[in-house]
């Protein structure tokens, strides 16, 4: 998974954001599992994936809020 900036995520469709959220959650699960078993070599990847997940969730929430407000922003 390639890390995206928030501005790049805003350009994605809601379906693409959902897909990337699922991928990020799966990757985070795998990284946590590797970390717990001592198999993770690049621990900084945990931080990057958590931040990516937070960006995706933030943009998804912003889009949902805009949709509720009728797109007036």
Give a verbal description of the structure.
The structure is a single chain. This protein has 73 residues and is mostly helical. The protein is built from three helices and no strands. It has helices spanning 6-10, 14-37, 44-68. The mean pLDDT is 92.
Task: Give me a quick take on this structure.
The chain has 73 residues and is mainly alpha-helical. 74% of the residues lie in helices and 0% in strands.
Task: Describe the secondary structure blueprint for this structure.
Layout lengths: L5 H5 L3 H24 L6 H25 L5
- The outline comes out as elongated
Question: Kindly, what is the distance between the CA atoms of the first and last residues, rounded to a whole number of angstroms?
Answer: 31 Å
* Count, helices: 3
Strand count, sense and closure of the main sheet? none
pLDDT < 50 runs, ≥5 residues: none
Mean pLDDT: 92
Range of helix content: over 70%
Sheet-strand content, in percent, reads: under 5%
Specify Rg, calculated over alpha carbons: 14 Å
Q: Structural class of the secondary elements? A: mainly alpha
How many E strands?
Answer: 0
User: What is the N-to-C succession of helices and strands?
Assistant: HHH
List keywords for this structure.
73 residues; elongated; mainly alpha
